[in-house]
Design goal:
mainly alpha, Nucleotidyltransferase, domain 5, 59% helix, 3 strands
Length: 94
């Protein structure tokens, strides 16, 4: 089960990395508690599917603050409204 989850998440993250070229992706929420089981598969998929230069610059980490971080991010988005486009590096929390 974890290998399947890691494969699908890795495919998704590789697509996001190729499209947005992120600095950091933070996995948060309940699933991040189990990252030790699926993270190797995620990283393998990302390395095989994303552009090599993008993989070198993007860190994928699991949050230590599992559910609080996702809730905080959602509250910040609601408070700030629609994010604006800016030039430079961006991060994504999932």
């Amino acid at each position: 089960m974890w290998a399947y989850y890691g494969e699908k998440l890795g495919i998704l993250l590789a697509s996001i990395i190729n499209f947005v070229n992120l600095d950091t992706i933070v996995l948060c929420g309940g699933g991040s508690k189990s990252s030790k089981y699926f993270m190797p598969t995620v990283l393998k998929e990302v390395k095989s599917r994303a552009y090599k230069s993008a993989v070198k610059t993007c860190k994928i980490v699991a949050s230590q603050h599992t559910s609080e971080l996702g809730l905080l991010g959602a509250a910040m988005l609601a408070k700030e409204g629609t994010p604006t486009t800016e030039i430079g590096r961006r991060s994504l929390s999932l």
